[in-house]
Amino acid sequence: MESSNVQMDLASLEKTYDRYSSFYDLIFGAFFSPGRKKAIANLQFDDGASVLEVGVGTGASLNLYPRHVKITGVDISEDMLRLSEKRAQKACRPVDLYTMNAENLEFPDNSFSHVVAMYVVSVSPDPAMIVAEMMRVCRPGGKVVVLNHFSDDDSLIGKFEKALTPLSSKLGFKPYFPLNKFRQECDAIAFEELMKTNLLGYWSILKGTKS
Ligand SMILES: C[S@@+](CC[C@H](N)C(=O)[O-])C[C@H]1O[C@@H](n2cnc3c(N)ncnc32)[C@H](O)[C@@H]1O
Questions:
Q1: What spacing in Å lies between the alpha carbon of 134 and ligand 1's midpoint?
Q2: Total of domains in the chain
Q3: In which element (H, E) is residue 195 found?
């Protein structure tokens, strides 16, 4: 088995993120914010636009969408979702939130104008399945956006991440997550790499169009 395909199961992931929920915003709220802003700023929201955010977490991005956009968020961690709910209420922003596995979305085909996954694909057990589901529920012409860190095999950091692979389940994400392999696995969509973002540009924003 390729080392980036380390097995992570959803039940333990759910527990990990339930645990992370109490300090997630403190550590990853502002730190991941530039990437969220850029990923969303890159989308065009017409009248009547809707967005699905898979792995919406604590809802750190909810206030970044224009107010006319109808937001739906799903996550497997109820504790993370509870924080999303609070955030939406504080902002007086109606958001539909569901406890749901992004690898098996319970929405009909072509339901949303755009579908977004920020810092999620290297967390979930089956990233290709998430992207296939994102594609399925996105309307034709809509954008599928993935924001994530991708490992560079040639760099020292990449080698270090590879060495950390056995700890993936404990960490709640795969430190080693190479872009070329992700692209190959997601053969249903041709992703364009839009830009690098966050600290040292170690995270990338990918965008594809549902045909
Ligand atoms: C690193 S957090 C990112 C949260 C948020 N997108 C952000 O920008 O901060 C990853 C989130 O994805 C969720 N997640 C991971 N795999 C998932 C899956 N298969 N289905 C739904 N949610 C998932 C986790 O519970 C967690 O809330």
A1: 14
A2: 1
A3: strand 192-197
> Each residue of 72-130: pLDDT tens digit?
999 999 999 999 999 999 999 999 999 999 999 999 999 999 999 999 999 999 999 99
**Distance, CA 24 to ligand 1 centroid (Å)?**
11
The whole domain housing 138 covers: 3-209
* Model confidence pLDDT, tens digit, residues 129-157: 999 999 999 999 999 999 999 998 889 99
Pocket probe mutation, ligand 1, options 33, 51, 75, 177, max atoms within 8 Å of Cβ: 75
Strand ranges of the sheet holding 95-99, from the earlier edge strand across to the other edge: 95-99, 70-75, 50-54, 112-118, 138-149, 203-209, 192-197
Q: Which two tokens stand for residue 154?
A: 């040639």
Q: Please report, for the domain that includes residue 162, its CATH number.
A: 3.40.50.150
How do residues 25-70 score in pLDDT, each as one tens digit?
999 999 999 999 999 999 999 999 999 999 999 999 999 999 999 9
Ligand 1 pocket test, candidate residues 120, 121, 147, 174, most atoms within 8 A of CB: 120
* pLDDT higher at 30 or 170: 30
Helix, strand, or coil here: 173? coil
Q: For 105-149, where are the E strands, in sequence order?
A: 112-118, 138-149
CB atoms within 10 A of CB 87: 19
Q: Could you tell me the distance, in angstroms and rounded to a whole number, from the CA of residue 197 to the centre of ligand 1? A: 19
